[in-house]
Request: fold
Amino acid sequence: MGTSRRSVPVSFTGKDTIANDRWSCQSTRSLIQMSSSESNIGGEIEYVKADDGEALQALFAKQCDSNGLMTKEKLRAVPAIADLLDVGDILSEELDDIWDAAPKFPDIEADAKMDERIDVDGFVQIYRDIDDLFEQGEAAETAPAATSPSSKEGSSTGDDKEASKEVGNIEDDEDELENAFANICDSSKLVSREALREWEEIRQLLEEGMLGEDEFDEMWKGAPKSPGSPEQLDVDGFLSFNVALDELFVFDEEGEDGLEGENNIGDDDVPVVQKKEVLGMVVGDDLPPGVIFADLAGGDLMVGMKELARWKELQGMLLDGELQPTEFQSIFDGIKKAPGTTNKLDEDGFIALYEALDALFEEFDEEEELEAERKKNKQYLVSLLSAINSDEDRLPIGLETTDTENEEVVKAVVALETAPTNKIITSRGTIKAEELAGTWELLYQSSSSMVFNQGLTGVGKNLPRTKFSRLLQKLEKTKYSSDVDFIETWDVGIGEDNSFDVTVTGDWELRDSISLFTGEPSLVLKVVAERVKYGVTDQQAEYWKSLGPMLSLDMTYLDDDLRIMRGNTSKSSIFVLRRFTE
Reply:
């Protein structure tokens, strides 16, 4: 049909609107209107208005993947875009350029071209950039098909003259904008945000209060940036910015009062420029949901996606990633809509939406508070045991603690064991042996047997100038074996060089069991000791009754680096172990 490209944004309607024409061109803001093609064999094709944000989001939701993202191939398959490609109204190279200029989802690396994906914002930009490709066609295409036989050759109707005049004005406007761009761009033919703000027309609008700083920022963010220069505009981006700027204003050709009278100069008066009413963001803070609804609702006393886009707190949650678009859409879809509508909420519906969102973050806040409390209790227990074990005048690991100290340890232990974020509770006892593999150091015990033996084995109890130093438990887990080593160090005299180790070897496993005290399911770490070795001594472990306290223990608390266990037959025996690092 002879349409040219990249000049003034126009609007499009489907085939069923004008016979034999793929698109009809108008001089207003570019819209791909909702229509159906009667000749489309595969069924109806949706042509969504390019400035209808809700409709574009709905179209994206139908075509995107489960993560709310879309690849280039999926974009090409969108029926309206596929139809444009099929009939040649848009070239594949043009679509590639528009795709490259669109913002990609941030989890995709820049060089992974085959895997690039866009979110709903990128889709909206691409859709509108495609729409902006088309400009006013030749005047003859929109003129009447025939004139009266009595008309003189070359004559035209008033409508023809108006259309030609309008096309001429549009072309003149674009020429002026391109000249303005040439005056403010840099040597690379690009315009920065600062340069655009200093453009005389923008500066004047800002100074006169006709344009707000927030409005300028929003239009800058929405203008397509030059490929390879994410913070600069090329001439196409500059023209798009001016389209958005024009949309802020309306022209009143009848004057401010809209009345014809003796004070009117005539039909050729210069139109009066008036700013459109721009609704600002609604800040809810701690306002009741009914008040927020009243601020958001339109004249029909309902809110849809368009109105919700003005709710600052909601947009902040979406922007910060605290709430995913697909998650919000799911919540919105589950709210009962206002009578007679499919996508609008009355006050009751909005309050239900507000409460559903509030519940999400109340649950999140509660979990954060519980986790913070657990960390606080853990830090207290570790600090308490560190103070006990750093006292050089006493044996460590609770071998010589006071009753008061033991009571404090028990309180801290119980606080961790009963914490809702305790892994033993959250996993419902389904702990894998691999999670325990590694070396652990005993920080505390309250076993009467170990206190009596002044250690696990008691080897050094009766040796002169010998005292317990530390106990390590090394758990190994492979496909074919589960080995355990207890390494007990005894100091002799003064200095690290005067010490010896007693090593207990054996096997270990985790067993599901039933607590003898609570009747609840429990997880037991069972050890089968085999040998006891120190110096030249190597004996069977079955003769070492002193090992009993650590051979069968219920696991009551676990995180990445701390483990608490209790005696399987004596709950008063507590063992606290921490992952050991050299």
Observations:
- DSSP finds 19 helices and 15 strands in the chain.
